[in-house]
Design a protein that fits this description.
about 40% helix, Immunoglobulin-like, Glycosyltransferase, about 725 residues, 17 strands, 3 domains, 5-stranded mixed beta sheet, Beta-Lactamase
C-alpha cells in the first residue's frame, strides 16, 4: 500500500480538533425499523436537529437530548434520535453551528455489502493459496506459505514426533497483520462464524465471490472449512494433543506472503488452551457441518472424534500453560486461566454427545459470565447452550441459561443507556482490540434478545455496530473500504506491501487502545491519552490499527444478526412478537376446569360453523382431554397436527403461533427447528396456552384445519369470548 506523502505526525493535532466538532453517526446506515442515533458535539448552537434528504429538504426533525458526558473521551455531547424515520433514502443530519453529517442510507439491505466484505476478508488472508484476480480484483497475489513441510520444534517434540520431524499443516488463515497461524485465536474466530450461520442461516444464502462459490454450500461454511482443515492438522494423532501455533521463529518483514517463504516454519509446544479451544471448535463444527455429509463425507464424525481426543489430552494435561520458547518471538496467546476453556469445550461436547461426564464438567467449571475474548471463552459455551436449550431440557436447566445471558445483557444495556455516546463501552473496555470488545458485547446482547426480545438489548447491540461504523469519538468508520471516513492504513502486511493504494477491504481495525504499546515505534503520535481517543490511522500501529481474524468474526456475526432480528414490515401472516406476548398475558384464567373448557369449545365451534370453516378443536388440562370436536368433513390428520402443536406449547410456554413468528422473524425455518424432531412438534398457529394465574401453564386450547394464522385467530377468539375480552 502506498504511504501518504505528508507525515501523519503533523496532522494529528488538526485531525483531533476536527473530530471534536463533527457529528458522529453510522456512516453506512440503518435498516428501516432500526434504532437510529447520532452524537452531536458540544459546539452545536441549537437544541434541535433535522434530517435532510439528497435534495436538501427536511424529512424529519426533533429535539436533541440533554447534554451528557462520556468519560472515555472526556466529551459532553447530545444525542439525536431519529428512529422514527423509516423511509428508504440517503440522508444527512443537520444541526445549527455544525457542518452537515456524513451521508448515511436507510434501506432494507443496509448491511449486505458490509457483511459480505467482513466475511470475504478471510479469503484475502488465506494461507497456502494465491488470491485469484477473478475473486480478489486489485488485491490478487501469489500464494504464500504452503506449509507442506513444517518442522516440529523442540518444545513440541515427542517420542513419536521428535524434534525436526517434518509434517504437513497447510491451509488456514493468517492470524492478523502477520503471517503466523494460532490455534487459540482460530478457535474463537471459527466458532463465531459457525454460530453466525447456525443462528442466522438466511443471512448467508448468497455467494460473496470466493473460489468455492456456487458449490451448493454457503460461502461462510466453505471459508470456515479452510481453517478447520488446518486446525485438524495441528492435532498430534499419536496422543490427541494440539500444537499451540504454527510460526516462524520471528515475525516476517513488511513483504508479501510469497516473499516471506524463505525461513523455516515450526509447530510449537502443545498446550491445554489449544487442546480445549480445538475441542470446542471441532465439536461445534461437527454439529453445524453435519447436514453437509454429501459434500464432505465423514467430516462431521472426524471432527467430533478429534474433539473428544483433544479433551482427553487436556484432562490428562490440565496445566500445560503455553509460554514462548526462548528462540520464538512471535505472538504468544498465553493464558494461565483455563477454567473457561474447560467450560466451553464441555458445553460443546455435551451438546454433541449428551454424555454425563461433560455435564458434570460444566458444573465444575461454571463461573460468572463476561464478554468473550480469545482469553476468556466461557460465554461461547453459554451461547451454544442457549441455541440447544430446547433439546437439552430437562437435563440442563433452561432457566439457568436464560438468567446468565440476561444478567450480562442487562448490565451492558444499562451502561449503554447512561453513556454519553449511548454505547455499552466503559473506560475499562478500551483494551487491545477494543472494537472487537464492543462487537462481542453486541453479540452477547443479541443472545439475550433472542431469548426474551427486550427492545433495549437490540438497541444497545445496534449501537455497538454504529460505534465501529462512525459513531465513535474518532469519527472513523473502522472497517476498510466502508463508510465516508474509513481508516486507510492498517497494520497488515499484505495491505502495506502490495503497492495498491487502498487497503485490503473488509477488515476491522483493532481500535482505540490507551495502552499505546507501539508508541515508541511509531513516527505518528497518539492525539490523546483518553481511552476512546487513543487511536492513530498509521500502519506502524499494531496496538490500535492492526487487523485480526478474531476481531472480524463478531463483525460478521453482528451484521448478520441485526439484518435478521431487526423488525421489518411484516409479511401478511407474521405478527410482532410483543403483540403476541401481550395477548398471552391478557388472556389468562383465575381457574380452569371442565365447564370452562366446554364453554370455550362451544364458542369456537359456533364461530367456525358461522364462517363455514371445517376444523377440529381440542382443549386439554395437563394430559387430560376436556373437549374435542371434529366438524363434518374434518381430516383425521387434524389430531396429529393438534398433538404436535400442543407439544410445542408445552415445551416453550408460548402459543405455537408465537414460536412460528419468532423463528420466521429470526430468519429460520419453522419446519426445521434446531434440536426438535418435527414429527413431534409443529411451529404452526393454532395451539394457545391455558395459563392460570398463580399456577402457570395448565393446558392448551387448540384448533386445526385452517392456515396457521387463522387457526390461531379462531382459538384466541374463543378464549376472548369466554373471558369477555373485546376483540
Amino acid at each position: 500500500m502506498r504511504r501518504l506523502s505528508i507525515p501523519l505526525l503533523f496532522l494529528a493535532a488538526g485531525t483531533a480538533a476536527a473530530q471534536s466538532s463533527t457529528i458522529k453517526l453510522n456512516q453506512v446506515g440503518f435498516l428501516p425499523q432500526a434504532h437510529k442515533l447520532a452524537v452531536v458535539p458540544q459546539g452545536a448552537s441549537g437544541t434541535r436537529f433535522e434530517v435532510v434528504g439528497a435534495d436538501g429538504k427536511t424529512v424529519f426533525e426533533g429535539a436533541l437530548g440533554a447534554p451528557g458526558r462520556w468519560e472515555p473521551s472526556g466529551e459532553t455531547v447530545r444525542v439525536a434520535d431519529f428512529s422514527a424515520l423509516a423511509q428508504p433514502g440517503t440522508y444527512r443530519l443537520k444541526v445549527a453551528g455544525l457542518a452537515l453529517s456524513d451521508p448515511f442510507a436507510i434501506k432494507p439491505d443496509a448491511y449486505r455489502a458490509l457483511g459480505d466484505a467482513a466475511l470475504k476478508a478471510y479469503y484475502f488472508n488465506r494461507s497456502g493459496i494465491g488470491i485469484d484476480a477473478r475473486y480478489g480484483g486489485a488485491w490478487a497475489r501469489a500464494a504464500g506459505h504452503p506449509d507442506d513441510k513444517v518442522l516440529v520444534h523442540v518444545s513440541a517434540a515427542s517420542r513419536a514426533r521428535p524434534q525436526g520431524t517434518v509434517i504437513a499443516s497447510p491451509k488456514g488463515w493468517y492470524d492478523a497483520g502477520d503471517y503466523n497461524k494460532y490455534v487459540v485465536n482460530s478457535g474463537i474466530s471459527t466458532y463465531t462464524l459457525l454460530a453466525a450461520f447456525e443462528h442466522y442461516p438466511g443471512a448467508f444464502k448468497h455467494d460473496v465471490g470466493i473460489p468455492e462459490s456456487g458449490n451448493g454450500v454457503p460461502d461462510i461454511l466453505d471459508e470456515a472449512l479452510w481453517n478447520l482443515e488446518w486446525m485438524l492438522t495441528m492435532q498430534d494423532p499419536n496422543d490427541g494433543g494440539v500444537y499451540h501455533k504454527l510460526t516462524n521463529l520471528r515475525f516476517d518483514g513488511t513483504v508479501m506472503p510469497h516473499e516471506a517463504n524463505r525461513t523455516p516454519r515450526y509447530v510449537v509446544a502443545k498446550s491445554t488452551a489449544a487442546a480445549l479451544d480445538f475441542a470446542a471448535t471441532m465439536a461445534a463444527a461437527g454439529r453445524v457441518l453435519a447436514p453437509y455429509e454429501k459434500q464432505w463425507p465423514g467430516m462431521a464424525a472426524r471432527m467430533l472424534a478429534a474433539a473428544e481426543g483433544a479433551w482427553r489430552w487436556a484432562e490428562a494435561n490440565p496445566k500445560a500453560v503455553f509460554k514462548n520458547p526462548a528462540d520464538v518471538k512471535t505472538g504468544e496467546y498465553g493464558d494461565d486461566q483455563l477454567d473457561d476453556e474447560f467450560f466451553w469445550a464441555a458445553a460443546e461436547l455435551f451438546i454433541a454427545t449428551g454424555k454425563d461426564a461433560y455435564s458434570q464438567a460444566l458444573r465444575k467449571y461454571d463461573a460468572p459470565l463476561t464478554t468473550p475474548s480469545w482469553g476468556n471463552v466461557r460465554a461461547l459455551g453459554w451461547i451454544s447452550l442457549a441455541q440447544a436449550r430446547e433439546r437439552l431440557a430437562p437435563s440442563f436447566d433452561r432457566a439457568r441459561i436464560e438468567a446468565r445471558l440476561d444478567g450480562l445483557a442487562a448490565q451492558l444495556a444499562e451502561t449503554s443507556r447512561n453513556a454519553g455516546y449511548r454505547v455499552p463501552m466503559a473506560s475499562k473496555d478500551f483494551v487491545w482490540g477494543s472494537n472487537a470488545m464492543i462487537l462481542n458485547q453486541a453479540m452477547m446482547l443479541l443472545q439475550a434478545y433472542r431469548l426474551n426480545r427486550k427492545p433495549d438489548y437490540l438497541a444497545a447491540a445496534q449501537s455497538g455496530l454504529d460505534y465501529v461504523l462512525g459513531r465513535n469519538a474518532t469519527g472513523y468508520a473502522f472497517v476498510t473500504g466502508i463508510g465516508a471516513r474509513p481508516f486507510l492504513h492498517p497494520h497488515h502486511r499484505p495491505s502495506m506491501a502490495d503497492g495498491v493504494a487502498a487497503p485490503v477491504p473488509g477488515w476491522l481495525a483493532g481500535g482505540p487502545n490507551p495502552g499505546q504499546q507501539d508508541k515508541k515505534d511509531c513516527p505518528a503520535p497518539y492525539p490523546s491519552t483518553r481511552p476512546a481517543l487513543s487511536y492513530i490511522d498509521h500502519d506502524c500501529s499494531y496496538a490500535a490499527n492492526e487487523v485480526a481474524i478474531n476481531w472480524n468474526a463478531p463483525l460478521v456475526y453482528v451484521t448478520a444478526a441485526l439484518s435478521t432480528l431487526t423488525p421489518r414490515p411484516m409479511d401478511k401472516d407474521l405478527v410482532a412478537l410483543d403483540l403476541l406476548a401481550r395477548e398471552e398475558q391478557q388472556l389468562q384464567f383465575e381457574r380452569f376446569d371442565q365447564s370452562i373448557a366446554d364453554a370455550i369449545g362451544a364458542k369456537i365451534v359456533e364461530r367456525a360453523r358461522n364462517k363455514r370453516q371445517t376444523v377440529t378443536v381440542q382443549i386439554k388440562q395437563g394430559e387430560t382431554v376436556l373437549f374435542t370436536q371434529a366438524m363434518p368433513g374434518a381430516s383425521p390428520d387434524h389430531l396429529d397436527w393438534i398433538r404436535r402443536k400442543n407439544n410445542l406449547v408445552k415445551r416453550t410456554g408460548h402459543s405455537s403461533f408465537y414460536t412460528h413468528n419468532e423463528v420466521r422473524q429470526g430468519g429460520g425455518d419453522h419446519d426445521a427447528l434446531p434440536g426438535l424432531d418435527m414429527r413431534d412438534y409443529a411451529a404452526h398457529g393454532g395451539a394457545f396456552p391455558v395459563v392460570v394465574r398463580g399456577q402457570g401453564l395448565v393446558g392448551t386450547v387448540t384448533v386445526s384445519g385452517l392456515p396457521g394464522a387463522d387457526d390461531h385467530a379462531l382459538a384466541v377468539a374463543g378464549v376472548k369470548d369466554y373471558l369477555g375480552v373485546q376483540p
